């Protein structure tokens, strides 16, 4: 199995910063992409940022210039540096790894973290 553990969420005032981290463990053969999604109450889960193994990065328009995603392939960890936070950034943030487990019959799947709450007060 592949397990993802997130950390770094919390309560911050508008204009503040937080860094989320997500570490994957288990029987991992390869990681193809790492990403972050968020879901506010009553809303759908939306992509925030994504980085591929080759280093291609994509951001949601709403976070461009404020959030930075990075990955440490050696540690199977991804980070989301969030600056200039706004109340509308309040949501549960989920990390996701697109990865392949070890094993001859293993396929590429998306593995999700448990989510971490980010609350930005005005």
Report what the structure shows.
With 122 residues, the chain is mainly beta. Helix content is 0%, strand content 61%. The protein has strands at 2-7, 10-13, 18-26, 28-39, 46-52, 57-59, 67-72, 77-82, 91-101, 108-112, 116-121. The strands form two sheets. Strands 2, 4, 5, 6, 9, 10 and 11 form a seven-stranded mixed sheet that branches. The chain has a four-stranded antiparallel sheet with strand order 1-3-8-7, with no helix packed on it. β7 and β8 form a beta hairpin. The protein is elongated, with a radius of gyration of 14 Å. The N and C termini lie far apart (40 Å).
Chain-wise SSE layout:
Blueprint: E1 2-7, E2 10-13, E3 18-26, E4 28-39, E5 46-52, E6 57-59, E7 67-72, E8 77-82, E9 91-101, E10 108-112, E11 116-121
Parallel strand pairs: 2-11
Antiparallel strand pairs: 1-3, 3-8, 4-5, 4-9, 5-6, 7-8, 9-10, 9-11
Overview features:
4-stranded antiparallel beta sheet, 7-stranded mixed beta sheet, 11 strands, mainly beta, elongated, 122 residues
Outline of this structure?
The protein has 122 residues and is mostly beta strands.
The shape is elongated
Low-confidence stretches: none
Radius of gyration: 14 Å
Query: How is the biggest beta sheet arranged?
Result: 7 strands, mixed
């Amino acid at each position: 199995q592949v397990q993802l553990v997130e950390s770094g969420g919390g309560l911050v005032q508008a204009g503040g910063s937080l860094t989320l981290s997500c570490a994957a463990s288990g029987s991992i053969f390869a990681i193809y992409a790492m990403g972050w999604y968020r879901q506010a109450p009553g809303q759908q889960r939306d992509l925030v940022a994504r980085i591929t193994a080759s280093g291609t990065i994509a951001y949601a328009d709403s976070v461009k210039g404020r959030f930075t995603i990075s990955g440490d392939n050696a540690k199977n960890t991804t980070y989301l540096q969030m600056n200039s936070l706004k109340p509308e950034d309040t949501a549960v943030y989920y990390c996701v790894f697109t990865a392949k487990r070890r094993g001859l019959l293993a396929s590429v799947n998306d593995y999700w973290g448990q989510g971490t709450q980010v609350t930005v007060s005005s």
